[in-house]
């Protein structure tokens, strides 16, 4: 049966967001541009729905399992729509859909069971966990479905209801996902709202919301934290990254080059924990640049719906302008493009996969988050110098170390100031592990049981052992 198309959101006053296909730069559909006052009724309904949803853990498990099945069954509708509005190759969109279903299944089975807590005194204390209430999620455009599910799967499993706002650049697949999930979830347990920045700002500040979980840029994260301070709602922030990959002296360049390249260029580099800078020993630097440049020159760039494409377009015009700006500034500062370095001719937001060398270490393409298909490769003389450079920004999301001696690589990885460090690969996450940035990359934890508890409050009942 075909997946039903989402209806226009009730209550919108006719305003709409035009949704562009980044492969052409042209609008192909629209979504409601909901206005902040509409949130009052939406959050009120989420509150009503919470009473029933929090009360029955077994019913929640059943509903979340059914939701996972429904997502899987709708894959052939969700994935092409996601590619159309986001730009990524179709295979990556299917992977997002699969991850969304897997995450629902994972959290459906987690059980925050009560347990005794004791300090040895003759008092029986039992720790139970309580749902928070209606919670809000605000997500960006790089992984619309996967990041939405990282919010709603643990929140709903914990017994909360949720109001979720996708990016105005990518509202369509998320709205369709909402329609699909509505076939398995009770009414108003998960509501998708679409609109621009003021809608997000109001959602973050709304007094009816008990937890605001946000993924996006650091400046918007700060604004969200400030807005949520009004109601003292809990805040989880998953923010930008500038992950470094450190290659060690004993690295086998040819063996790791493919993996390293795709760790930087998957989803056109628009991944919070993509490799965003490479540090190579001076002796190997030109070999590394050459190996990566060769892959950048031969990677197939094209519309995500074309099955030959390995890299799609940048998602939107402002982001393309940002990528162009960082690249132009690096080139003006003396960097050289070993591959790419420019926008591709023709329609759409395509940028040539770019490898930069001779980049000044204080160039913004190194110190800030480029979030696009551009990778600076920097030489280092001593390992301490490389570790200091890797740790020398305000970011602290992830990092990786690449070499043949795994024990040595692991020892270096332990020195990275970040939430996740990989050895000989990058950006692979298990559903069962905690995911948390440090420094300006985040506040709070997602993933695994920690992600569930981030959506719960501890509730302790004390009673004496005797009457
Ligand atoms: P963004 O911060 O511009 O927007 C994110 C979301 O916030 C959008 O839905 C947007 O409409 C909304 N928003 C904008 N202004 C708001 C406000 N004042 N109040 C509330 N909501 C508001 O980010 P983006 O450009 O969409 O995404 C790219 C950024 O996301 C990058 O920095 C990337 O590293 C980061 N990111 C982080 C993670 C992570 O897990 N750490 C994952 C993916 C992306």
UniProtKB/TrEMBL annotation:
Active-site residues per Swiss-Prot or TrEMBL entry: 238
Entry keyword annotation includes Iron: no
UniProt cross-references to Pfam families, sorted A to Z: Aldedh (PF00171)
A GO molecular-function descriptor: oxidoreductase activity, acting on the aldehyde or oxo group of donors, NAD or NADP as acceptor
Oxidoreductase keyword on record: yes
Keywords in alphabetical order: Oxidoreductase
InterPro entries (UniProt xref): Ald_DH/histidinol_DH, Ald_DH_C, Ald_DH_CS_CYS, Ald_DH_CS_GLU, Ald_DH_N, Aldehyde_DH_dom
SUPFAM superfamilies listed in its UniProt record: ALDH-like
Domain Aldehyde dehydrogenase: 15-454
Family the entry assigns: Belongs to the aldehyde dehydrogenase family.
Entry protein name: Aldehyde dehydrogenase family protein
Species the sequence originates in: Streptomyces kasugaensis
């Amino acid at each position: 049966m075909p997946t039903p198309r989402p209806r226009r959101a009730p209550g919108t006053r006719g305003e709409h967001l035009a949704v562009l296909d980044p492969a052409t730069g042209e609008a192909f559909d629209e979504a409601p541009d909901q206005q902040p006052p509409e949130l009052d009724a939406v959050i009120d309904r989420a509150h009503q729905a919470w009473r029933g949803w929090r009360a029955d853990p077994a019913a929640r498990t059943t509903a979340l399992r059914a939701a996972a099945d429904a997502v899987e069954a709708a894959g052939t509708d969700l994935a092409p729509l996601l590619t159309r509005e986001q730009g990524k190759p179709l295979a990556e969109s299917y992977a997002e859909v699969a991850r969304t279903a897997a995450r629902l299944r994972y959290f459906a089975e987690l059980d925050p069971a009560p347990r005794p807590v004791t300090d040895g005194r003759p008092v029986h204390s039992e720790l139970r966990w309580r749902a928070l209430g209606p919670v809000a999620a605000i997500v960006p455009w790089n992984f619309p479905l996967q990041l939405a599910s990282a919010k709603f799967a643990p929140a709903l499993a914990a017994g909360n209801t949720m109001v979720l706002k996708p990016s105005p650049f990518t509202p369509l697949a998320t709205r369709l996902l909402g329609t699909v999930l509505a076939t398995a979830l009770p009414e108003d347990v998960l509501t998708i709202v679409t609109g621009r920045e003021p809608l997000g700002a109001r959602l973050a500040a709304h007094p009816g919301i008990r937890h605001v979980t946000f993924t996006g840029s650091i400046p918007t994260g700060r604004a969200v934290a400030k807005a949520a301070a009004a109601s003292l709602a809990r805040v989880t922030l998953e923010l930008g990254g500038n992950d470094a990959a450190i290659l060690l002296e004993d690295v086998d360049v040819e063996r790791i080059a493919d993996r390293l390249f795709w760790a930087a260029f998957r989803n056109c580099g628009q991944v919070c924990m993509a490799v965003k800078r490479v540090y190579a020993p001076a002796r190997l630097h030109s070999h590394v640049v050459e190996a990566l440049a060769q892959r950048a020159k031969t990677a197939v760039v094209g519309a995500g719906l074309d099955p030959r494409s390995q890299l799609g377009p940048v998602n939107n015009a402002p982001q393309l302008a940002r990528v162009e700006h960082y690249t132009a500034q690096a080139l003006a500062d003396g960097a050289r493009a070993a591959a790419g370095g420019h926008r591709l001719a023709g329609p759409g937001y395509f940028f040539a996969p770019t490898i930069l060398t001779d980049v000044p270490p204080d160039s913004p393409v190194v110190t800030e988050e480029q979030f696009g298909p551009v990778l600076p490769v920097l030489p280092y003389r001593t390992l301490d110098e490389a570790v200091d450079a890797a740790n020398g920004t305000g970011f602290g999301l992830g990092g990786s170390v690449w070499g043949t001696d795994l024990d040595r690589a692991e020892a270096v990885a332990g020195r990275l100031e970040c939430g996740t460090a990989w050895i000989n690969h990058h950006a692979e996450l298990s559903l069962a592990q905690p995911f948390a940035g440090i420094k300006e990359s985040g506040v709070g934890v997602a993933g695994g049981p920690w992600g569930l508890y981030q959506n719960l409050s501890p509730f302790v009942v004390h009673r004496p052992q005797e009457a």
